[in-house]
Amino acid sequence: MKITILGARGSIPIEGKKFLEFGGLTSCVLCETKTEVVFIDAGTGLINAPIITDKNVSMLLTHPHLDHLIGLPFFPILSQKNKIIDFYAGTHEGLNAEKLLDGLFSPPYWPCKINDYPADFRCHELSLPMQIGDVKVEAIKSNHPGESFIFKVSSEGKSFVYATDYEYDEKNAKELIEFSKDADLLCFDSQYTEEELLSKKGYGHSTISQGLKVYKESGAKRLRFVHHNPAYDDEFLRSLEKEIKNENVSIARVNEVIKL
User: Fold this and answer.
1) DSSP label at 45?
2) Where are the domains of the chain?
3) DSSP E strands, the chain
4) DSSP 50
5) What would the mean pLDDT of 246-257 be, rounded to a whole number?
6) Domain spanning 2-259 has what CATH number?
7) pLDDT at 154 over 90
8) Angle of helix 170-179 versus helix 208-218 axis, rounded to 10
9) pLDDT band at 139 (very low <50, low <70, confident <90, very high)
10) Considering only CA atoms, which of 180, 183, 189, 184 is closest in space to residue 209?
């Protein structure tokens, strides 16, 4: 299984010379196996998704906040005629996967419906655990306003846990630690510093030190921090990374490829 970080910025997309290394594109991760391509989230990182011709394409949505959906109207594969895209999302505020997108893809916010695109876009309700080709998908609920999911995708003995938009506390961390046990890769939300977190309780995000606790207690093999604060430039993120001192742990960079 191959994981590509297409976008790791939180809250809003940003640009500029100070944000080139870690990137300013919002949440999107690409998981590839022999037969399947599975995108997790549809932030602006999705805009740079490769054209897929020989594999099945699916997408998992952690939750429908705008920074995780804003790239979908510009998804290149939507323009591929007769290409099937299977989209999976949970129900939020009484809205299923199809209705969630119907609100986004409608005037005056957008001039066309998602089914007006050339690709065959199919909406599905999450039914967990589930199998997508050679990929097993499991999930637990995250600690985040409005509800979100933490996904685990597994294939051929390898597993990847994507825990973005998650607020750590000792009680809910036990479930995540067990869920991430011995994972080959864990991506973990680290939007805030410890100082910032003091005034951001309830916002649904965590810190590097909290991620390191989950990493160590779960026995995950590698850790990447995601959902970077939009105020953190490359220099600041590098300074945070220097304090970690573990070759298997780093802050996710845009277009980083991790082979499991």
Assistant:
1) G
2) 2-259
3) 2-7, 28-32, 36-40, 56-60, 84-89, 120-125, 130-132, 135-141, 149-155, 158-163, 185-189, 223-226, 249-251, 257-259
4) P
5) 97
6) 3.60.15.10
7) yes
8) 50
9) very high
10) 189
